[in-house]
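Record type: monomer structure entry
Structure origin: computed from sequence
Chain ID: A
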Amino acid sequence: MQRQLRSISPTQLRTYDTCPLQYRMRYLERVPTTDSPASLVGQAVHAALERNFLEKRHSGYDLDLDEASEIYDDVWASRLPPGAASGASADDFEEAYASGQSVLELYLKEVAPRVIPHLIEHRFRFDIPGVQVQLVGTVDLIDRNGVVIDHKTSWRAYPETYPDQDLQLLCYAIGYGVFRAGSRIRPGNLPAPFFIPEVRVDVLVREDRPFIQQLTATYDREDLDRFAARATDIVVGIETARFDPFWQAPNRAEDPQVCRRCSYARICDASLVRDALLEDGRQDGNQEEQR
């Protein structure tokens, strides 16, 4: 039976673009997952920065470290998986917690003071050309100069090409471009390229010596046409129930790192790393029993 979409989010587009099978498990089957150390850090840092810029928009000042740390701690405590503080993965969560705190402190000290927020959690919607589906999403932050800023946390620096390749980031730029263009956009069309803002990704890198990586990009007509074509393919894929694992698609390599970043890597029959992860888990369990 064909599934008719009415709307889709940038995260859903990106998930399907990463792996159609992951999309099915997450959005259709709603397979439950628990937060990993990395995802928990991302949520806690995001919450602290969101509150910081919301407050700064009104007061003109960033939060002090104690206030930001309290928000970080609240999110961490509320979402920490049961048993994570004492099980085999306790060291991973403890290390992630500390590294997240360190990189949050660094960002508030070195980057946040230079950011003057204009819009925070800005909602947008626009029509995807060629299909009767709206894209609906939220931009984290837009500064006074109209730059769309997205925040990421990572153990390693991102590739320099990330802003040019990330479908979600391009959605954010188009979404704000639609807002800027207003009624000058014809129904079913995307904004002209001169309405599309510059984007910046601030990557909070949680290495032993944390640092902030900033990647910028601008988009042109070719990028907008690429987005329209890819988004249309994704909508058609969802509506016609094409949910094969990513590595079965044409011109896609069997990249184990895609599976390692997936929340379903341990339970997915098509995972390229499931056996290795399960074996690591058994070894961790054996070591825990011997302590």
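Annotation 1: Confidence is low (pLDDT under 50) at residues 282-291.
Annotation 2: The chain has three domains: 1-31+116-243, 34-114, 245-285.
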